[in-house]
Amino acid sequence: MIKLNIFYPEKEGSRFDLDYYLNVHMPMAIEKLGPSLRGVSVEYGVSGVQPGTKRAYIALCNYTFDSAEAFLDAFLPHAELLQGDIPNYTDIEPIMQFSEIKISQG
User: Fold this and answer.
1) pLDDT tens-digit profile of 38-63?
2) pTM over 0.85
């Protein structure tokens, strides 16, 4: 199993519309990625580890697929639509990475 991690770094003066992301973009992405999507989670950063410190990321999204190829097969037909929607919720350039899941517990 692989996970596609998408990180939206905290940047001074940046814009991130969490309501739009959760209620419009993510439902659309989940629907378009279809049955090969094994799991998804969205996290919203609240602070750094030390009380009162800045968060490193405004939001994180994790998609789980059987393989990177399975993700690409699901994503590429909808890439223009999904990537074209990004300006509707943020001006932050996301950082993306594939990770191989080694341990996972409910």
Assistant:
1) 999 999 999 999 988 999 999 999 99
2) yes
What dihedral do alpha carbons 86, 90, 93, 97 form, nearest 10°? -70
Helices 68-75, 26-33: axis angle to 10 degrees equals 110
- Domains along the sequence of the chain with CATH: 2-100 (3.30.70.100)
Taking the C-alpha atoms of residue 30 and residue 52, their distance in angstroms, rounded to an integer, is 34
Contact 64, 38 (CB under 8 A): yes
Whether the CB-CB separation of 7 and 95 falls below 8 Å is answered with yes
DSSP state of 90: B
| DSSP state, residue 21 | I
